[in-house]
Structures
1.
Amino acid sequence: MKIDAFLPRGFPGDIWALFITSVISSVGFSITMPYMSLYMNNVLNISMTVVGAILMIAQIIGATVGLYGGEISDKFGRKFIMVRSLSGRLILFALMGFIILRWHNIFTILSFLILNSILYSFYIPASQAYVADLTRADERLKAYGLLRMGGNLGWALGPTLGGLLATMEYAYLFFVTALCMLIAMVVLLNYCKESLIYKKMADNDAFAQNQKASV
């Protein structure tokens, strides 16, 4: 059964599935991340200055890698990249949970944040290109807004859920996040078709029309 049977009309079901994926993955990410700086400061005794530097380094590296995200999704496919990003983050968060339970230090945390930032930086341009492939120019702005709303909704729910789970050991929150990434990946795999083929078809049609016009 198609997912758009249960959702408001206007966008393809794939766009709504991507919206749901965005909500779930953002919920998962925001369960752990708001408390990461407190964890580093209170548990690992890392000064807030160093904590800020660690977060900044991870963001800079992720942003730099993100410059190539669109090109990579053009080559391998939007869905392909998004699924790999979510699966990579699933493994990363689960592994981080085990590491925090057993062994952890500043270098482990930095490596985790950098890898997560890189994987996220691949996901974003691929998801934006996916929206562009499956929507008309006149509805694209609303579709991007829907995707952004999904992320914001996830960030509104995630920290609240993280607070409710705060009685658990911090490491277990990473397992909850990994579960969210798994659910998001399952939604993406089952309800989002690969869109790159539609972009190529549209490009070929546009090229053919231009060729006819020039004759």
2.
Amino acid sequence: MSLLHKLSKDLDGLAESNAFISLEGEEHAITYGELWDQVNLQARGIASALAGDGPVLLLFDRSVGFVITFLACQMAGRTSIPMFFPRTARHFERLYAILEDAGATSVLCEEGHADRIYSKLINHGFAGQVVAATDLATQTEVSLPGMAPNATAFLQYTSGSTGKPKGVKVSQENLWHNQTLLQQTFATTSDSVIVTWLPFYHDMGLIGNLMHSLYLGATCVVLSPAEVIQKPLRWLEAIEKYGGTHSGGPNFIYDHCVKAIPVDAASGLDLRTWQVAYNGSEPVQAATLQAFASHFASAGFRPEALHTCYGLAEHTLIVSGGKPTHDVAIGISSGAICPGVSVAFYEAATQTFHKKMGEICLASPSVTEGYWGQNAEEDFVTQDGVRYLRTGDLGQQVGDQLYITGRLKEMVIIQGKNFYPYDLERALADQVDEISLNGVVFTYVEDAGEQPLVVAEISRQVLASEAYLPIVQQIEAYLVAELGLPPYDVLFVKPRHLPRTSSGKLQRVKVRQGYLEGTLDFVYQHRDSISGETTIAHHLTAFLDDPQAEHLEAYLLALLADTLRLKRDELDAFGDINLYELGISSLTGVALVNRINQDLELNLEATHLLETGTLPAVRDRILTLQWLNASTNDGEEIVL
């Protein structure tokens, strides 16, 4: 069975019912009968007039036109590639890379955009055709082959949070099976009203909303993502107006609603029809769910409507979902594992499986074949004859509940401890008013002994005032208290300048790579603003030429400031400095003492510095050792 077969079968009873109500621009609706007719007309045109037989790139700005062409491609037997509508030179660069990867030579778009898109793509070497989909619509009778269950219905290109764009091959069978999981998980029916603002080229918006409403024979209300993010009240007003029963999005939209919608506006809403408010696509925060339920309680929103979920394009979409449970030690769950989905936990280092914890691996009919044009074997492991997809996500199972604990490639290991970036990012956003959630990246620099790296988007007010240092100090204070060491570096970028995926997820690995390669576009870098080797060398030379206490103090302060990535004026007076309060850890302390021994040709032991914790004690020991080295002794090494 496929969506097209089901639509054809159910059409008589649905012909006059609204399939979609679009609020993208002026409100307009399309019935199931009108939708089916337009899909058929376009499918004939695609089958008869579109060159080649390879994948077709779909570039649409509005959801309803996209859905018609998306289904028409399947009816005509052509694999499609849903993609964002391009607006910038950078967008076209990425689109051309996808065209090359997929071997696509045809692009379908909305009326009035073909010439512009073609003129941009030919600048990158594109030699195919760009056609307005409505221009292909024809009454001509042609054979419409449709698609076999194992045929690739579409390629879900995803940049992911950790890598380059890859085309996930989603088959008709994958799509159908995942629809059954969605229905079971969220108890949807033909009477459901789905309200969506999620991008239709992304798996949650496409499969979980647009396609799911067609699978149910329900009505889907569609809003513009940009308009909802600009004014989230529009989303909730649409749920009220149309009696929305199922709607949701990533964690950030719930936070955004609480912050952007005043209490009086929230109280004026009626959200009693909202049965399932799902939260997925990024780490779910218990505090967010609590705050949203409390803020909109006066609007009739029920806390039990809050559902969490977990999924990924490589599993078509959903893996787990439902009403969450909370474990004090682990956090909030991503709901129950969907029926028929087998979950195993793998440890790559030992190539062994564990019962309830590790890298999440999946087996079900929703598991896709792999990536277009790539060998998929490295993405799978086998246990007891069952082939499991490795997700790259870390998790834990308690009962039937699945807890997502991190992303394997993003996990930060500092001094032997594992840290998940988004936990620290959220804490930083809570601690520092000028930093927003989903606007800060916590990662690390390997060459600096795995010291933390923080890159944050900064508000325009701070950009105007250039008051960066107080914010850096707050970040340093938090990391010292939490991790026991300060950041290796802190960078600030303009709003919306952190790399993100098409669904808004931060690309942490890309941020770290950009830092190491020097390609990040930043407005302030703390490491570059502080004294470094030149200042250390100056004070070292002064002390070696004239070994007085004041020169040694200046050298130690410069070395300490550089080690802790601080400005000299951020340090207290020499006699008041407590190394542990500044964030000296055992590793940092050893590195500091090794540097002192190298510069001064001494054999000072790190244990002394770590035991005393004060610079005056270190200074006095160095001066004593210098005096002893200058005095006559029996030639044996003296260790103090």
